[in-house]
Amino acid sequence: QKEVEQNSGPLSVPEGAIASLNCTYSDRGSQSFFWYRQYSGKSPELIMFIYSNGDKEDGRFTAQLNKASQYVSLLIRDSQPSDSATYLCAVMRGSARQLTFGSGTQLTVLP
Amino acid sequence: SQTIHQWPATLVQPVGSPLSLECTVEGTSNPNLYWYRQAAGRGLQLLFYSVGIGQISSEVPQNLSASRPQDRQFILSSKKLLLSDSGFYLCAWSVTSLSYEQYFGPGTRLTVT
């Protein structure tokens, strides 16, 4: 079992819809979770982080964490074509706060 | 505000040649620093991390090495490149706060021919 798993996609949603991206992790002791967005050919950009069970909202983005189910998700409301990118889930571990990344989910928002 | 620089942006090197990639961070002190590699169509793999000057930890065995000669400088090196070293090399730094979120530099795209 991979440490961090994401559906590779591609995931397509129409403009204005809600995009739902999912991630599961294997280490039950993991505490902090991150979502990055990566446009083709560019470096990852931090969107949100979450470390408490429940929802965390920032503009059109909502991160959801369920530690009992070892599940973290990212919802994008009112999706825009500019949201088309690969979304990376990352889990923090270790004394140096290293990140383990999932393989990413490719999202396409159709105009 | 904090800024992270990487250079060069792109690099084409023959097999067996040496490599030196540099990363510098501005606007923060004593950051944790990280080197990642992203091979074509694959996820991010952590290569090295450093919690202070001269302190380097390796995540995977390979022909690469890293050094941190100054607080905000992180260098990735190789004596002899392999074809499998091709990829997108990313440097990141993390805030030393409760969340320790990491921020990435613009990256170096390396092609070994």
Give a brief description.
The complex is a heterodimer of chains A (111) and B (113). Chain A has 111 residues and is an all-beta fold. Chain A is built from no helices and eleven strands.
Mind explaining what this structure looks like?
The complex is a heterodimer of chains A (111) and B (113). Chain A is mainly beta and 111 residues long. Chain A contains no helices and 11 strands. In chain A, strands 2, 4, 5, 9, 10 and 11 form a 6-stranded mixed beta sheet that branches. A 5-stranded antiparallel beta sheet of chain A has the order 1-3-8-7-6, with no helix packed on it. In chain A, strand 7 (61-66) and strand 8 form a beta hairpin. The radius of gyration of chain A is 13 Å and the shape is globular. The termini of chain A are far apart. Chain B is built from no helices and 11 strands. In chain B, strands 2, 4, 5, 6, 9, 10 and 11 form a 7-stranded mixed beta sheet that branches. In chain B, strands 1-3-8-7 form a 4-stranded antiparallel beta sheet, with no helix packed on it. In chain B, 38% of the residues are buried. Chain B is mostly beta strands and 113 residues long. At the A-B interface, strand 5, strand 9 and strand 10 of A face strand 5, strand 9 and strand 10 of B.
